[in-house]
Amino acid sequence: MLERLFRIKERDTTVWREFLGGVVTFMTMSYIIFVNPTILSAAGMDFDGAMFATCVAAGIATLVMGLVANYPVAQAPGMGLNAYFAYTVVLGMGIKFDAALGAVFFSGITFIILTVIRVRALIVDALPHGVKKAIAAGIGLFIAFIGLTEAGIVQFDANTLVTLADVTKPPALLAIFGLVVTAIMMVWRVRGAILWGILLTAVVGLLGGVLKWQGLIDPAPKPTLFMEMDLMAAFDLGLLNIIFIFLFIDMFDTIGTLVGVTDKARIMKPDGSIPGINRALLSDGIGTSVGAVFGTSTVTSYIESAAGITAGARTGLANVFTAALFFLALLFTPLARTIGAGVPVEQFTAVEGVIGGTPVSGIFGQTAFLHPVTAPALIIVGSLMLTGIREIKWDDPIEAIPAFLTMIAIPLTFSIANGITLGFISYPILMVCAGRWREVSPLAYVLALLFIARFIFIMS
Fold it and tell me: What three-state secondary structure class fits 43?
């Protein structure tokens, strides 16, 4: 049965290798169990409910990817997408999280439809290579910036906007310790370095009195966010623009991950084609829709799956083991609460002007906590998302300038949408000015016009 489902011999692997690969993949990406509820709780969502949604959505989506596409590519709520959901959509735009969940659900359904009718390929082909790479890099900078503020390392300054905080405070010292330890383990190529870094930092935080122990194992948390999405509100509030952004970010993240991982797993053909790519993309759309139903932001494919492939995973059977571990993690809610619930800012520093804590011009909403245990993971993951910029042709201004605008605008405007918009608009304009307008896909001009209309709509 396993051979029939997963073609284990055909891909030159064994059940044991698939098990090891599945465990390693879980170890390298299980930080999301702690980090995702932390980010979503900033949007007013129940931490335990967000953890339940994270584990269940990751488990179901990973299982679907394994069974439908037979890829060793695990899925979970995406980093960057959760930050956009919490900080930009909910806190920045003032939209309630249930309406935002409705937008996520519709983006998943749209992703499924585009995949089924094969429009996805046309959209992807219309986008410039440099902008695709810059989106991931910009999101990485965005995540790292949030991590630095949540660590209490960077804070608001009335003159320079941001500045170095008092890093002698206990939360900042704990976060710096976690960052150094995690980085060292990554240099030593320790599998699951991010997870081990979180756990070791939590132990030091408990011993140092920065964190409060709340237990290890407990009955699974209640699904308090299940079916909390408000589909009608998503339409009433005019969230089509947000649905569009969720859709495109997920699309690029998924395609980039699948290309990189399938190449490493030797699934990709010599001509660059990927067998069963539509089934994999369909799995991603299903995962996003299921995630919204349970109460989490967009679910996407994880590049950390490459670690499991390095350990031997070659088929979807590895995903079955990874999914099982995500479901098992539901029993460790008290541990997740200990690690991710946060440290009140008032204990260690003045509340006034701390970006990672109290409101600063509406950027971070009403959060009154720092998260020194999970913040290092945000910073490290942000750095890992920058690797694609080496593929940008920096000596070609037509590719480099749109890529740079995309990458730098995302963290500096605190909006992924703004960065993507500038990249989409600037590229066709430069191509027209260079007399190469025929080389640009007609769809790219349509997308550019849509983004210009978006800017006009926002500013009006």
Answer: coil
Residue 369: domain span: 2-388
Is residue 147 within 8 Å of 364, Cβ to Cβ? no
Q: Which residues contact 169 (CB under 8 A, 6 or more apart)?
A: 152, 348, 349
pLDDT at residue 353, as a whole number = 41
Spatial CA neighbour of 257 closest among 387, 146, 370, 166: 387
Mean per-residue pLDDT, 30-45: 87
d(CA 111, CA 293): 16
C-alpha R_g of the chain: 21
pLDDT digits over 398-412, tens only? 999 999 999 999 888
Helix (H) or strand (E) holding 20: helix 15-29
Instruction: List, in order, residues 6 or more apart from 218 with CB less than 8 Å away.
Output: 331, 332, 333, 334
Provide the 10 A C-beta neighbour count for residue 181: 18
At 199-247, the pLDDT tens digits run 899 899 999 999 888 888 888 778 889 998 888 887 765 667 778 778 8
pTM of the complete model: 0.73
Tell whether 208 is covered by a domain: yes
142 falls within a domain: yes
Per-residue tokens: 451: 């983004």
* Of 35, 48, 25, 69, the residue nearest 315 (C-alpha): 69
Stretch (H or E) spanning 83: helix 81-83
Mean pLDDT of the residues in the chain: 83
CA-based nearest residue to 38, from 75, 79, 76, 74:
79
Provide the domain count of the chain: 1
Q: In the chain, what is the greatest distance between 2 CA atoms, to the nearest angstrom?
A: 66
User: Using 50, 70 and 90 to split pLDDT, how confident is the model at 346?
Assistant: low
Q: Collect contacts of 181-188 with beta carbons under 8 A, ≥24 apart.
A: 182/376, 182/377, 182/380, 183/380, 186/380
- Nearest one of 104, 136, 135, 119 to 286, comparing CA atoms: 104
Q: How much is the pLDDT for 135?
A: 81
Phi, psi of 7 (to 5 degrees): 55, 55
Decide if 331 is inside a domain: yes
In a domain, 431, yes or no: no
87 phi/psi in degrees, rounded to 5? -85, -35
